[in-house]
Amino acid sequence: MRLMATVSQWIEGARLRTFPNAIAPVLAGTGAAAGVDSFDPLIALLALVVALSLIIGVNFANDYSDGIRGTDDSRVGPFRLVGSRSARPASVRNAAFACFGVAAVSGLGVVALSGQWWMLAIGALCIAGAWFYTGGSKPYGYAGLGEVAVFVFFGLVAVLGTMFVQAGTVSGFGIGAAVGVGSLSCAVLVANNLRDIPSDRVTGKRTLAVMLGDRDTRTFYTALALVPFVITVLIGLRNSWVLLGFLALPLLLIPLRAVIRGATGRYLIPAVRDTGFAMLAWGAITGAALAFG
């Protein structure tokens, strides 16, 4: 039987709900660069293309790798192309590689415009990290290191890299924004993995949530979700406009309540989505405050 996913299924497989993980760090990093009078719209746009291409690529790569391992056979979460038998594994893998190619070309444009050629190595590391999260013979996402990678790549590297290629430097405010975005990005993954603890245990996928267990994972999520607002207070001592970041806090109330009250399975799907929206709001508001405050 020939497998042929529809356009809408491919779009769903790209997981648009994860896009805040790519957009928020670029907004925050660009705002930090503008705060030191170094905003470059073309570099910022290319950085956004890099981030979006990587997030789509890693989503397709995870779909492929988890699918061929059978990890997605009983998953509660969003639609998967390979796990649902809607697309051939090779097609999903090739889509991932195509996205990584777009990220590489866009990243080449970034380093050419900024003159920071050494950052080609950072770009290569990001692509390798995206693939080996669930790919290869020993994926680090199956060894409880997914949250570390998300914090590093979609927090520190994405925010500070976006700032550095525009400004040629990083600031304390930029580091704070990177930690805040990275923490919320981790919280998205923690909520996702909390939902998948039962199925991941069955398939042998040892995420950090599986290692910590249900109760401690919920505590970890809560701590991660609150870190950015501690940073908001600290940066707000120097730039009062950053305190507007608290406007993102109401977006976290519902997912926090769901996690704290013990929601499981499909009832955690909205928590993953809403945490992403809160991250996008916090990153956008903080970036704007750093730029204009």
UniProtKB/TrEMBL annotation:
Example of a GO MF term: 1,4-dihydroxy-2-naphthoate polyprenyltransferase activity
GO biological processes: menaquinone biosynthetic process; vitamin K biosynthetic process
Membrane topology classification: Multi-pass membrane protein
Involved pathway(s): Quinol/quinone metabolism; menaquinone biosynthesis; menaquinol from 1,4-dihydroxy-2-naphthoate: step 1/2
EC number: 2.5.1.74
Compartments where found: Cell membrane; Membrane
One Pfam entry name: UbiA
Catalyzed reactions: an all-trans-polyprenyl diphosphate + 1,4-dihydroxy-2-naphthoate + H(+) = a 2-demethylmenaquinol + CO2 + diphosphate
Cellular component terms (Gene Ontology): plasma membrane
Entry keyword set: Cell membrane, Membrane, Menaquinone biosynthesis, Transferase, Transmembrane, Transmembrane helix
InterPro entries (UniProt xref): MenA, UbiA_prenyltransferase, UBIAD1
Major localization class: membrane
Spans through the membrane: 42-61, 94-111, 117-136, 148-167, 173-191, 220-237, 243-260, 272-292
Function in brief: Conversion of 1,4-dihydroxy-2-naphthoate (DHNA) to demethylmenaquinone (DMK).
Alphabetical list of NCBIfam families matching this protein: menA, PRK06080.1-3
Family according to the record: Belongs to the MenA family. Type 1 subfamily.
Cited HAMAP family: MenA_1
Name of the protein: 1,4-dihydroxy-2-naphthoate octaprenyltransferase
Organism: Saccharopolyspora flava
Lineage of source species: Bacteria, Bacillati, Actinomycetota, Actinomycetes, Pseudonocardiales
